[in-house]
Amino acid sequence: MRALWIVLLTLMLSGCGYNTFQTTDEQIKASWAEVLNQYQRRADLIPNLVNTVKGYAAQEQTVLLGVTEARAKVGSIQATPDLINDEQAFSKFQAAQGELTSALSRLLVVAENYPQLKSDANFRDLQSQLEGTENRITVARNRYIQAVQEYNVTVRQFPSNLTAMLFGYKVKPSFTVENEKQISSPPTVDFAAPKAAK
Prior knowledge:
The protein is mostly helical and 198 residues long. Helix content is 74%, strand content 0%. It is elongated and about 85 Å long.
């Protein structure tokens, strides 16, 4: 009789999802660490990039200051492992990273107006490193999104949702598109020929 209870308990525990929670939680932590690693790599490139641009385009103070302030804002957010369990803090972190991405884009657009800057070997190298880092950020974020998706499905799926309730596992936040409304509306295209001036 005792052996039967052990077998039944083992079968119940094997289907409860507890080990899956442990595995997917570790995947999320590893994926999140890689996201932070790539964001840090980008943050480390910014001072050199700003200084290089400043050497050629010192009059672009507004753009340079915008990049510096956005980087400082990102640095002020404590990216602890607990951040991925707090949807509000996660959203704040994501918004700050989005502002930095936007500020860097403006900086690179400004650089287009300075041919000497564009031809500077140091600037080209930094720009190339920044582009590579942005690609790595995209890959790391995608891995994190997949890990969170797998975990969240386990939290919500029966019978593992019972284990989630029992042990307090909750759905984790994931990256979202900042301008979701804007990209969901179709672009306006006007094929009308321009009127000739009289």
